[in-house]
Recover the amino acids of this structure.
């Protein structure tokens, strides 16, 4: 992909990720946040955290399924936006909602499973944001860095469970997010098992060469 | 005569509200769509003009707090028959037709009767009472309701000795309540019709108000038109809306929320800061329109009047 194309794509991601914030600001300005503004802001920020986080996790499956390489270039940007949104989500909860009542918030974190899950999601995104620079990849080494960044899966699972557990009876949205997450993780699982089989077969070939094994589909 | 203005035209001259509402909605939706697609809800009128309803303020049963804004009380609602979102009832409320309407009062009573809604409204003097409404979701409002004590109605039908509980049933009609239609895979949020219940002594408590109006007007559809019950010391969902039947029964009714999530919503559901909802604390609440949370009071501040109903009961067990 050309450099201008990549820049255009990134500009598009910036636009899409900032639009919800702009809309929130506009609604605040025009006094259109509804009867319970704090709850509305918290929920909107939570929704967008989850959407952007799942979008960041969709980049690799796009490569696996459609053979596209350009989505990978957007992964870090999306991940960082998800982190920005979760920080705002947390800030609204702790400042606007509970107004720095830390003992009360701590009690909720340890007592209310959905809040525990939300905190876990936030905490697992923290090291990812901190190690998102090229310098940190170099310092950690690609292998360690990749391993650390599998925390993104933990964050996504915790975030979806957070939503599932807080939603009241009859609310369907969290189930759609859960389905999306299962699909995204499923694609990876499928690819991983395929790679394992291939590796095993390759190992079998090098140790006991068999005549005719080349006749298999070379693309498999 | 309680309705201020006697009609000066015949019924046939009146445009069907559904017609003009849908027309008005169409126009405003189109305008909103042209301007800003995502903001269309802001342009849709939440509440059509409502008929005024006069009533005498009952100061002894009224809080001195400033009522929540009418706009907030009519756009931030839980009324699952219209959908699970807070703005569903005000967006979709126009599908409910509160006239003609009847309320069947029967069960273990000597004088069962089906009341026409306009007859019911004139049956007893209407009172205005400013009550606090505490939702189980930890928010609250202050609302000037108009109605009369449910006890008056129950007395008139003469409950028999077998009557121990009162069961309220909300209208079942998927054409008027869109969320009563099954969704994907037959999915439904609750088991319709919505059923709520009270013990007889709770139902006949002077605070329990059979409600036909609020803010000096008839009840808006999204708030449970044309008739609902208001039980101010219990979480809001106990106050059944759009009631078509009040039945006196001998067994404790199985309520809609008990069926949906028994561990979360008990039969009693008295406001109690000491008993958490399994998923969140009930220790405090956000009064709509206020910034900081305020502590939740036992029985929503009505402990003086109702705590004796539960003397000797373990309120943690009977939540």
């Amino acid at each position: 992909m050309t450099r201008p194309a990549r820049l255009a794509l990134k500009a598009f991601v910036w636009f899409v990720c900032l639009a919800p914030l702009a809309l929130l600001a506009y609604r605040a300005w025009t006094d259109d946040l509804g009867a319970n503004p704090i709850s509305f802001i918290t929920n909107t920020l939570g929704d967008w955290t989850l959407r952007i986080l799942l979008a960041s996790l969709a980049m690799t499956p796009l490569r696996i399924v459609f053979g596209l390489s350009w989505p990978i270039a957007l992964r870090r940007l999306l991940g960082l936006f998800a982190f920005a949104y979760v920080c705002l989500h947390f800030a609204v909860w702790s400042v606007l909602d509970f107004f720095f009542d830390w003992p009360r918030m701590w009690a909720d974190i340890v007592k209310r499973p959905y809040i525990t899950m939300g905190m876990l999601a936030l905490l697992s995104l923290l090291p990812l944001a901190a190690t998102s620079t090229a310098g940190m990849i170099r310092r950690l080494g690609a292998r360690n860095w990749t391993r650390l960044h599998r925390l993104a899966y933990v964050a996504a699972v915790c975030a979806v469970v957070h939503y599932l557990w807080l939603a009241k009876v009859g609310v369907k949205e969290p189930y759609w997010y859960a389905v999306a997450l299962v699909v995204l993780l499923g694609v990876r699982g499928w690819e991983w098992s395929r790679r394992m089989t291939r590796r095993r077969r390759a190992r079998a070939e090098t140790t006991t060469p068999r005549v005719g094994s080349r006749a298999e589909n070379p693309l498999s | 005569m309680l309705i201020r203005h006697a009609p000066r035209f015949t019924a046939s001259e009146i445009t069907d509200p559904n017609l003009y509402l849908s027309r008005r909605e169409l126009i405003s939706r189109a305008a909103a769509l042209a301007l800003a697609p995502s903001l269309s809800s802001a342009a849709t009128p939440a509440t059509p003009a409502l008929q005024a309803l006069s009533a005498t303020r009952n100061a002894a049963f009224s809080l001195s707090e400033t009522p929540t804004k009418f706009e907030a009380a009519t756009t931030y609602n839980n009324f699952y028959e219209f959908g699970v979102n807070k703005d569903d009832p005000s967006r979709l409320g126009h599908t409910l037709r509160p006239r003609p309407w009847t309320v069947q009062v029967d069960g273990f009573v000597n004088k069962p009767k089906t009341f026409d809604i306009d007859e019911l409204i004139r049956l007893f003097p209407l009172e205005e009472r400013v009550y606090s409404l505490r939702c189980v979701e930890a928010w609250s409002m202050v609302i000037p309701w108009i109605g009369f004590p449910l006890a008056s109605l129950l007395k008139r039908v003469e409950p028999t000795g077998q009557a121990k509980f009162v069961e309220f049933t909300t209208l079942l009609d998927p054409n008027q309540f869109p969320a009563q239609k099954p969704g994907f895979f037959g999915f439904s949020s609750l088991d319709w019709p919505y059923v709520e219940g009270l013990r007889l002594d709770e139902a006949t408590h002077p605070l329990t108000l059979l409600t036909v109006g609020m803010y000096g007007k008839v009840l808006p559809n999204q708030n449970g038109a044309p008739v609902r019950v208001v039980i101010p010391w219990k979480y809001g969902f106990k106050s059944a809306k759009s009631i078509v039947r009040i039945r006196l029964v001998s067994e404790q009714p199985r309520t809609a929320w008990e069926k949906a999530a028994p561990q979360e919503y008990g039969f009693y559901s008295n406001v109690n800061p000491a008993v958490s909802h399994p998923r969140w604390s009930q220790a405090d609440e956000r009064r709509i329109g206020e910034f900081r949370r305020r502590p939740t009071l036992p029985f929503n501040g009505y402990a003086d009047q109702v705590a004796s109903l539960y003397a000797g009961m373990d309120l943690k067990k009977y939540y």
